[in-house]
Fold this sequence. Notes:
With 631 residues, the protein is α+β, with helices and mostly antiparallel strands.
Amino acid sequence: MKAHLRALILIQAKPSEPHFIVDVFTNELQVYWTSPGGHYEGVAIYFNNTDIEVGNSGTYSFTGLAPYTKYEVEMYSWITNVEGEVERSKSSPGTYKTLPGPPPLLNADSSLTNIAESSSKTITIVLSPNTFSEENGPIEYYGIYIAIGGSDLYPTLTTINNCKSVTVVSECVTLWTDGQGNLIQDNVQKMITEVNRQSGSIKFIIGDGSVTLSPCNHTYVNYPLQPDTGYRVAVAAKTGNDQMTTTNWSLIIVTDPQSSGSNAGLIAGVVCGAILLLLVIIAGIYYYRRHEKKGITERNLPFPNLNISTEDNRNRSIPMSKFKTKFKLSSQMDLQSEFRKLPKPAKSSLTADQNQDRNRHSDFVPYDSNRVKLVPIMEKSACDYINASYVAGYTSSKEYIATQGSLANTMNDFWRMIWEQECSYIAMIGELVVKGEVACSKYWPSENGSIASDDLSISLVSETVERWTKRVIKLESKRKVRLIKQFQFPEWLDEGYQKEYLKSLVDFATFIRSELKKDANPGPVVVHCSNGSGRTGTFISLDRLLQEMQEKSSVNIFETVQQLRQDRMVMVENFSQYLVLYKSVEYAVKCNMYDDVIFDNKYENTMLSNNQDVVYQTIPELYEEYERIEG
Length: 631
């Protein structure tokens, strides 16, 4: 009788299986369930190798999940049987896939302008295959945005307007294709655009008059463009679930002028004849000067290895007294043309497989001739490599070290470099996370914390957040102690033309230069952003240009960037950054910052007596002057 009763108790004690459903979202799973009924002591969800105890009925959300990813969810109830063991109910595990998310943007600029072609009524752009990633789901559609003028960095995705004509100033969408670049012209047939099958790049022709359908089957007319008109274009990629991401606006692309019809041949003949006559005159002048004055020999050129002649570079030097006028007379197209003449990166030998995990971006690596080499550690392979380059300053061949934002696995190498190169200053340009992407791993400790790195101990002494963040970091090794000053410029705007932003950027460079003047042996200044070339090159260029202004009362922006690109590839990465240099110098000119009085002894004496930085003694007065000029 007892045995039968015990068996009956065991049978009655079996827990019941809960009933549940799962709703899927892009970054979330929501689990709904009802009470399992019968005898049980608790209900739990098994997710991602973890048991989570929940209530008898209700909902539970798993957030922060990756888009377009499979997850397994299992739910069960449980009891403690008469033998003291936890006994689970049956469960029916299910696999659930989160919805697609916006396509990650691998290259915001995507070099649309550099590979664009135009006629009087069309613009052809090429989307490179490394612009968007499909890790958040396959790309189902591309939408082509177009605008005349405007200053926004990105198109507005919240309102996808149909282009009613091509003369409107506001942005609109003129063309839709599927994920392979096929024009969507009806629900069945598609007209194939030109696709480069080897590289995976896709050509889009804007203005060819075609009619396409949007993902919602709305009609979009690809209107012919206006001749001799500047347009900006951008490409939006769309996954399922209406998730979209867009590139930056391109630089301005100008359509060709309208053909003049029957007189075109006559005009072309006259123009060619005039050009030929002009070339003959120029050749005569060149021949006369060469034989009369002997010219400058290759031997005494200050920069014999540059890709453009020294004479050309001298012609680009602008006196401060004429800078404002010359800059206003230069169109954006003039500056774009100047930017395109900068040398392209040479091939580096440092792309070997063993270095790939030490490079944040495989396209930005140092040249072997001037890379920073770590002191070898014998038990480690390839241990002298770090993605860092010596960069020449205005007065020294190794005034800076340009490096990438630290990776988690290169943090020790970063601090080894700081210690071995005897650096005292770090300029960090930007934040740790930019547009949702990690640009640099945090390589300094939190307050009252410390980091052990090889033979070094790193601790944070102080942190002050004002217009920019100032940190003092202590390095300690074998009873030797060094203090490192790190200055972090918080926000970088590639299209930072606003007055207040330019003030901050110029002041930041001026402040760091004033700090260096106080130090008899500061060592190379370590400058980094994410790839160690774009924002890093822009900051170093600006620092050099401000020194050049004070020494020569003139600047040569092109030559400065050109020289930096000999030390590290793609310094000043894009035209927006190049334009920031012009705008920053313009601001400095308006404030008379090229006048030596700014760094006169009387200011240094004031600084020492009041224990304040020279930049805060002088810049406020310049602000007032700048406001008067602008107002």
